[in-house]
Amino acid sequence: MKIIKESNISTIIIVSTIFIISSLMLFNGYFFITKQYEILQAQIEDTKKTFVENKRNVLKREVDAIIEFIEFKKSRTNLMEPSALEALHHEVYDWIRHIRYGGQEHNYIFVYQVEHMSGGDKFAKMLINPNRPDLEGEYISDAYTDENGKAFRKIFLQDIHEKGYSFVEYIYKKPDSNIIRPKVSYFKLYKEWNIIIAAGAYTDDIDKEIDIAKAAFKKKMELEITSAIIIFLLFALIANTFAVMLGKRIERFLNTYHKQVQQKTLELENLNKTLESRVTEEIKKNREQEQLLIQKSKFIALGEMISNIAHQWRQPLSQLSALLMTLKLKYNMDKLDKTAMEIKCVEAETIVEYMSHTIDDFRNFFMPNKDKKMFSIQTSIDDVLRIIAMSITNQEIEIEVNILHDEFIIGYKSEYEQVVLNLLSNAKDAIITSERQGGKITISLGSDEQMVRLSIEDNGGGIKIVPIEKIFEPYVSTKEQNEGTGIGLYMAKLIIEKSMRGKLEARNENGGAIFTIELEKGFKETLGGSPL
Asked: Where would I find the Histidine kinase domain in this sequence (predicted)?
């Protein structure tokens, strides 16, 4: 079942927007509240530590002040008199019993008279304890534990033995009450009188401060949550309005787009109906154009053939004309005998046979051959040179053939020779146009295990067209407008690459152009190709 449709897309956008915004706000709210509670808990822990540390400082200051007072009183008393020392003890202990510090009644000083520093059941007497006057004058044990089983007396004895003082946290009964509360006490040994002076403070006062902080935090959180809800509602209203506007705009856009798609679909359907006929018509036009080019190429080749025949026949015709003039002269002078007549007839027959053989060469060269067959590259080059060599050498252009060993390929011999003829003719024209002295055309044959490569190189200045591959396009020529048609190389490339499945490439090198025909050895039927 398709959930999202064009008809309900605006509703989906609105609902999705509200859901996403609500989820984000709830997540952020939960994260914010959780983080605030974590901060509060950390603050509580820091407050507790600070509170206890402050209590410790107060206790230490009070005990140290008492010891300083004792030292002060001692300096003002004649300790050589036993009664004076006893009076000093009495005065100091009575003063300590009534000390209260920090503005709290339950903050008092207590004193132990140490009997055995190593501990034990009677390690000391309780001299002063305003919270427990019933213990004053009684022996006390270090095995005593608080409500949690903590033997705090053993702990402070161990610390005093090691460093002379001790801080111990334990729980103890508050004065004038049976309530047990946490307490921290500071114990310090006054060696001269062999007493341990201690001060204690209850740490449950911090709970009141914590309750106040929690109440303030709760009030702050209520305010924050109320503000967040208002912001959320305002933001949701704005987002909802934006989502409605966006949804409606998208809906209008989709409707317009849908109409355009329908229009394009209709046009595409109409195009598909006529596409086949259009493709057929274009193919037909392309074939007709190609046939026109082929036909034009054949007419051009025919013109070149007539030109080459003229070159081939010029000398034999001159010889035949001279022979006839000789016969006429001898006849007028009555010197034409049978022997001379026979000699001249043999010479004339030789000349006519040469001219007839030339006609056969041209006729065989331009005779279309529809069958693929194996043929020799060397033989094809020789056949082409018999036709065009005279027109090249008459322009004082040297032809060099570098074929160390012959190669055989399977293909269309006559079409291959037409390509070679076209390339040699172009090379000749390039050298003539460049007006270069010492013109030269080099024909080279090379091969490897798979390919046969025939290169035709000239020194006619190279191809000026850029990029050089453009030379193979139809109606592109480097010759003057009235001298070239621009289809010779196009047809040559068509023959080699389409008809014989090879490759025809051109490049500039050593002050001239090099055309390379590359064909596979053993051209197979499976490679395709057909004569043009």
From this structure: 308-523
